[in-house]
Design a protein that fits this description.
This protein is α/β, with parallel strands linked by helices. Helices cover about 30% and strands about 25% of the residues. The protein is built from twelve helices and 19 strands. The strands form five sheets. A six-stranded mixed beta sheet has the order 1-2-6-3-7-17, with helices on both faces. A four-stranded mixed beta sheet has the order 16-9-8-18. It has a four-stranded antiparallel beta sheet with strand order 12-14-10-15, covered by helices on one side. A hairpin with a 4-residue loop joins strand 1 and strand 2. Helix 1 crosses helix 3, helix 1 packs across helix 12 and helix 9 runs antiparallel to helix 12. The longest helix is centred in the last third of the chain and has 19 residues. The radius of gyration is 23 Å and the shape is globular.
Length: about 425
């Protein structure tokens, strides 16, 4: 096969230049971009419109195989998070290439995945590779706000059009000084992810003039409870995936990321206790509320966790209400598979000194919808990403190394070809 790297660089720049911020979530132009490229190569494409009025569309492309084996689906989301341009040194939707990097929102999350997936499909089509299984490319809307009209909607309404045995999605990178404090290059492959549980905490008390504070006020009651939560350290609980990570690496360093791999986490993300806009400084508000973003280990029962947190808060004056919760405990994909072994072999062929390991993803991805239906899902991007680069995801000056993208395109193409081609 020809080398797909340089074409991937050009296509990623073009993809980045399509503004797909969500909200508002209009990805029509991105879907059209992918559709035009695929159909020009003779690859059939179908568009699915969960909400045409807002430009929310999902794209499914297919290379037909013999049907001897069930499909492999390559999944990515077209939408990206908003940007504050004041913090960027490059145009967020300019697709600039500078000093060995491609800049732009989505360069790591996750238009880079979309382009290496696209190149894999194009390479197989161009070279007429005969397949034992259908190869699908699914580009979805709405992942950045939960995925209900994207992957969730497709699984709920069009499962029979896909029915994959395996899914390749986001949730894995080549990392350095990420899991360990040495320079080993470690390729993580996401096989599980934490459950998302968001809780609203609220308390109501009589409002009044700030010059005459009551014995009890909503803000102070909530502040005391939040203080107890902040002081609470959730217990370490190594899941089988985390144990496998430790075994393959000889241990996990004491970092914020690894800490989240080993335990449930609680983050305070919203705090609101004031009256007026702008807030009045001399008014004691009637209501105070906060939102906790909790990420639970795959095997964690949400009701048991909620009971544990209620005991930590220890204040029946506070109302605790879930505003987002998992439908069921998270499914862990087996990493004892031919696809996982192909990933290991093709990655080490380009990076001989690297280590590949299964990985517990500490955030949510669209894979959860497919795992719930029995598909084996791997988060996989075979390109090195330093922690400094990783920290730019959802932040300023998001960027990817040009060389990393080129190598990722080559590895991805080789993995997909080996796994899908006729034996």
């Amino acid at each position: 096969m020809s080398q797909p790297g340089q074409e991937a660089v050009q296509l990623l720049k073009e993809y980045i230049r399509i503004n797909t911020i969500n909200p508002p979530g209009d990805v029509t132009a991105a879907a059209k971009f992918l559709q035009d490229i695929l159909e020009k190569e003779g690859i059939p494409v179908e568009l699915y419109w969960p909400d045409k009025a807002t430009g929310r569309v999902n794209l499914l492309a297919r290379l037909k195989g013999s049907g001897k084996k069930a499909p492999l689906l390559m999944l990515h989301h077209m939408d990206v998070v908003p940007v504050d341009e004041r913090g960027w040194t490059e145009e967020p939707f300019g697709g600039a290439e500078k000093d060995g990097y491609i800049y732009g929102r989505g360069s790591l999350d996750m238009k880079n995945y979309g382009i290496v997936q696209l190149m894999s499909m194009l390479q197989l089509a161009r070279h007429g590779v005969k397949l034992d299984r259908d190869l699908l490319l699914l580009a979805v809307c709405d992942e950045e706000i939960g995925g209900e009209l994207g992957a969730g909607w497709m699984v709920e309404n069009h499962w029979d059009d896909m029915a994959p045995e395996f899914v390749l999605d986001e949730g894995g990178f080549g990392t350095e000084r990420f899991f360990t404090d040495d320079d080993r290059l470690i390729f993580s492959v996401g096989v599980a992810e934490k459950q998302m549980l968001a809780l609203n905490l609220s308390v109501n008390r009589a409002p009044g003039h700030a010059s005459m504070p009551p014995k009890e006020s909503a803000n102070f009651i909530l502040a005391e409870a939040l203080g107890r939560i902040a002081a609470y350290e959730t217990p370490e609980n190594l899941t089988p995936v985390a144990k496998e990570m430790e075994e393959r690496l000889g241990g996990l360093e004491d970092t914020l990321y690894n800490s989240a791999v080993k335990r449930n986490t609680i983050s305070l993300t919203v705090l609101n206790g004031f009256v007026g806009d702008p807030p009045k400084t001399n008014v004691i508000p009637e209501r105070s509320e906060a939102v906790l973003d909790c990420r639970l280990l795959p095997e964690q029962n949400k009701d048991a966790f909620l009971k544990e947190l209620t005991e930590v808060i220890n204040d029946d004056r506070i109302d605790i209400r879930p505003i987002m919760e998992p439908k069921q405990e998270s499914v862990v994909s087996s990493y004892d598979s031919d696809l996982f072994r192909v990933i290991e072999e093709e990655t080490v062929a380009i990076y001989p000194d690297s280590v590949t390991l299964p990985h517990l993803v500490i955030y949510g991805t669209d894979s959860r919808y497919f795992r719930d239906r029995g598909a084996t899902c791997y988060g996989f991007f075979p390109g090195p990403v330093h922690m400094e680069e990783y920290s730019r995801i959802h932040g300023n000056d998001e960027r990817i190394r040009t060389k990393s993208l080129k190598n990722a395109a080559e590895i991805y193409c080789n993995v997909v070809r080996r796994f899908c081609e006729k034996g």
